[in-house]
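Researcher: Let's continue the batch. This sequence belongs to N-acylneuraminate cytidylyltransferase, and it's 403 residues. Same format as the previous ones, please.
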Amino acid sequence: TCETPENGEKSRHTKAGDHRHVAALILARGGSKGIPLKNIKMLAGVPLIGWVLRAAVDSNMFDSVWVSTDHHDIEKVAKAWGAKVHRRSPEVSKDSSTSLETIQEFVRLNPEVDVVCNIQATSPCLHPFHIKEALEMITQQGFDSVFSVVRRHQFRWQEVKKGSGEFTKPFNLDPANRLRRQDWDGELCENGSFYFTTRDMIINKGLLQGGKVTYYEMLPEYSVDIDVDIDWPVAEQRVLRYGYFGGETPEVVSLVFFKVSGCLTEGQIFLSASGEEMVSINTRDTMGIRMLQKEEVERTGCQVVQVGQDPLHDLCPVVEQRKLQWKDVAYMGNDDPDVKILNLAGLSAVPGDAPTVAVNAAKYTCHSVGGKGAMREFAEHILLQKQKAKSQMKQDRIDISSF
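Model: Same format as before. Here are the structure tokens for N-acylneuraminate cytidylyltransferase:
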């Protein structure tokens, strides 16, 4: 039989007798002034908010995962990525509204919540292990609040007004005894990735950082924050290297399906003077197929399979014949009939011009549109994940040998 998604219960790791309801909460207001609808803008093929939602859900540490928003489009994306939605009131949706005010409203409306894990949507390199280790500081070590920091080695100087004639002064160095980087531990700075705290701190103390408070240090490569457009291409490269792409190891992908109409082609049919039907194929896309064949991702050469209204029904025998499961398969589709496979496949993608129903089901959305490089882009994404998996395996072997 063909593989289908499994629905398993999530489990939290808490000390014995601790049955507090732990909720993840991502604040995603629609009125961002820096980048319009920044929270759902595509970053490396995934809506920005999707990166942290994927990490939150896969951490298995939460009783509930929420997105607080005032915008319909953000609500749709949040639900597609497995979150519940808190539709915030106009009072906490203003430019002047603080995160604390929004979180307080959420907690008052959800009295079952005991611990709130406020995760910033603009931190796309967050991983499940960050969440697990930080949250256990509250659930197992007894802290009231935990926030993320990164170590910076930057010398800071006092700002002076231009033309004032004042002299600047150093904040954290002695110019006469300037330390080398390797001789200085640096300073811990908030990186804005997350703020975890208890209900009591939020409601009764009006604090996100208070009581028995501690920090969780993240490495610089995971400390990515996006505020303005200029950050986007830099963040995209960082995410492709250090982002969390899900629990499945992409190296197992050994079979790739590309839908011809709308993916390999633009979806248009041209008629010749003699009445023959023709389609246009981009050479960049055919090169993508050759790249996969060279890396032995597609083990059986390049074949054309005729499918009907339900591609899953027609492709299941192909997968089973090769003794594979859908987690071993990469699939590129572009519309409603492809949704089932887009959900099942270990890696899945749609062109940039695919309808919303397909985009929400896919794990990767291409910048390029159908017939104009989307297939090549997905091929490069598959190979990148294969390379990442090999690097991870190498690191795992190093970790094991160190014991």
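Researcher: Any comment?
Model: The chain is about 30% helix and 15% strand.
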